[in-house]
């Protein structure tokens, strides 16, 4: 138990360290070395730790690096929020059952749901229009919402009524 | 105790009608609270009775640690089909205790990972993540961290300001009403007795409807809230493909939107609505409450009976 607690603390520490290093990189005037980052952080970390964190950030595509002389210089690709977003996506994608743990605003739609939803949204007076301009790269959805609002308004409503009873 | 010990194992069936009917006829807050309360009582009684069967079953096993007198024929006579039921109850109880532990561990693990992912951000009540995948969820707090709402920029960009207010009101309603806890309880109940699975599905849907109603009340516009839910679902549809929880149940989002476009549900649960379907749903709610009460009585009866018999069988 003690070990897992320590392990937990260590890993959370890593998450915070990654964010701190990224923030330091953002404050840098340009591409900087790991030594610069270490100095910027107050020298509390070992040089190898800083390099390890930078390498991990590189694997997450949160930073980029290029060769400058004998060492690398590092540039941030994402800020702390971007890194958090990246880590969150990993957590959510690994969690096939996330719907039961996290109260998500919306869940998945089947094709039938989508049809029904589009026809419902046209009732609110905005759905059809939004369906058009938000999804400009998807021409099929525009026509789908047209036909859905024209002919399908009654049928899906009755259908859902039947299902819920 | 006779068949009383078996009754709580099947009484969860009384929750089926209300789990099926209540969602659109009664107010989701009252319904969800009722469902969770009934589920917890039914699950606890069912588990208690399974435990009683385990005691009787274990006493029959050679080399068991229980007092020898507990395998007395009188004790075995107290349980119908004691040979089969007693022994079947042992692996069943072990399996459900394990599954319950796994469920709790999974909930805690997901929350921990989500908190860790947010580790580098300032501890604001809302965490906005720059991500092309549109999603939003409520993260409950713990002793060290406060509860917060996590939302991505792509979802916020797709919504108008008033719709964003509805989204945040919805997520905050989850947190203030402790919905994550209710979901965990409902899931544990479904683990304890598989007959409670429809109830868990109804609770999963019920907390979303409850938060929708809260959001609609706070922003003061049901259509606007319906639009926020619908638009968010449609843009999530166009996000990158991923495995979705089968549990989410097809049709949840359209039913939520439909309910928001309809007049607000009556908040009274015990005075059934005047319409016939409302009356049926009200009766279904009563049936579930009755089932829970009956389950509590039978399991209490069975527990007391077994204790009395065991005391009588134990030589002083």
How would you describe this structure to a colleague?
The complex is a heterodimer of chains A (165) and B (316). With 165 residues, chain A is mostly helical. Chain A folds into 2 domains: 7-81, Arc Repressor Mutant, subunit A, CATH 1.10.10.10; 111-164, no CATH class. Chain A has 9 helices and 3 strands. With 316 residues, chain B is mostly helical. Chain B has one domain. Helix content of chain B is 67%, strand content 4%. Chain B contains 12 helices and 3 strands. In chain B, helix 8 (179-192) runs antiparallel to helix 9 (197-219). The longest helix of chain B has 38 residues, at 276-313. The radius of gyration of chain B is 23 Å and the shape is elongated. The chains are: A mainly alpha (165), B mainly alpha (316). Chains A and B meet through helix 1, helix 4, helix 5, strand 3 and helix 6 of A and helix 2, helix 5, strand 1, strand 2 and strand 3 of B. Strand 3 (103-104) of chain A pairs antiparallel with strand 2 (136-139) of chain B.
List strands and helices in order, with pairings.
The complex is a heterodimer of chains A (165) and B (316).
Chain A: H1 2-27, H2 34-40, H3 47-59, E1 63-68, E2 71-76, H4 80-94, H5 98-101, E3 103-104, H6 111-123, H7 127-134, H8 139-151, H9 154-164
Antiparallel strand pairs in A: 1-2
Helix pairs in contact in A: 1-3, 2-3, 6-7, 6-8
Chain B: H1 7-10, H2 16-25, H3 28-60, H4 73-77, H5 82-117, E1 126-129, E2 136-139, E3 148-152, H6 153-158, H7 161-176, H8 179-192, H9 197-219, H10 222-237, H11 252-261, H12 276-313
Parallel strand pairs in B: 1-3
Antiparallel strand pairs in B: 2-3
Q: What distinguishing features does this structure have?
A:
heterodimer, A: mainly alpha, Arc Repressor Mutant, subunit A, 2 domains, two-stranded antiparallel sheet, elongated, disordered N terminus, disordered C terminus, B: 316 residues, mainly alpha, 3-stranded mixed sheet, 3 strands
């Amino acid at each position: 138990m003690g070990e897992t607690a320590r392990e937990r603390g260590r890993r959370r520490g890593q998450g915070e360290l990654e964010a701190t290093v990224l923030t330091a990189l953002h404050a840098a005037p340009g591409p900087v070395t790991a030594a610069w980052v270490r100095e910027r952080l107050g020298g509390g970390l070992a040089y190898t730790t800083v390099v390890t964190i930078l390498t991990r950030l590189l694997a997450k595509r949160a930073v980029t690096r290029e060769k400058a002389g004998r060492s690398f210089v590092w540039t941030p690709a994402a800020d702390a929020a971007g890194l958090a977003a990246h880590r969150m996506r990993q957590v959510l994608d690994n969690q096939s059952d996330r719907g039961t743990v996290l109260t998500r605003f919306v869940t998945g739609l089947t094709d039938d749901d989508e049809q029904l939803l589009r026809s419902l949204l046209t009732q609110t007076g905005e759905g059809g229009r939004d369906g058009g301009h938000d999804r400009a790269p998807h021409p099929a959805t525009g026509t789908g919402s047209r036909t859905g609002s024209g002919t399908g308004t009654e049928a899906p409503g009755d259908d859902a009524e039947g299902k819920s009873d | 105790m006779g068949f009383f010990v078996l009754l709580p194992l099947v009484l969860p069936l009384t929750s089926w009608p209300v789990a099926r009917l209540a969602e659109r006829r009664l107010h989701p807050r009252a319904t969800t609270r009722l469902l969770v309360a009934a589920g917890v009582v039914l699950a606890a009684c069912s588990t208690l009775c399974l435990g009683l069967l385990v005691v009787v079953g274990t006493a029959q096993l050679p080399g068991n640690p229980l007092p020898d007198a507990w395998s007395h024929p009188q004790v075995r006579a107290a349980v119908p089909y004691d040979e089969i039921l007693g022994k079947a109850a042992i692996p069943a109880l072990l399996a459900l205790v394990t599954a319950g532990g796994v469920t709790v561990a999974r909930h805690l693990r997901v929350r921990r990972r989500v908190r860790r992912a947010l580790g580098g951000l300032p501890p604001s009540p809302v965490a906005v993540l720059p991500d092309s995948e549109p999603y939003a969820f409520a993260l409950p707090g713990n002793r060290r961290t406060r509860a917060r709402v996590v939302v991505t920029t792509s979802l916020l960009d797709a919504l108008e300001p008033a719709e964003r207010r509805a989204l945040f009101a919805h997520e905050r309603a989850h947190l203030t009403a402790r919905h994550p806890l209710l979901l965990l309880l409902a899931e544990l109940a479904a683990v304890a007795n598989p007959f409670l699975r429809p109830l868990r599905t109804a609770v999963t849907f019920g907390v979303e409807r409850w938060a929708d109603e809260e959001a609609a009340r706070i922003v003061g516009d049901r259509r606007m809230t319906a639009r926020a839910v619908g638009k968010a679902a449609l843009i999530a549809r166009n996000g990158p493909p991923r495995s979705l929880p089968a549990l989410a149940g097809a049709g949840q989002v359209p039913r939520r939107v439909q309910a928001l476009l309809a007049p607000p549900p009556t908040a009274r649960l015990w005075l059934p609505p005047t319409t016939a379907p409302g009356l049926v749903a009200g009766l279904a709610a009563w049936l579930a409450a009755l089932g829970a009460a009956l389950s509590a009585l039978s399991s209490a009866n069975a527990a007391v009976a077994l204790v009395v018999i065991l005391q009588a069988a134990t030589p002083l």
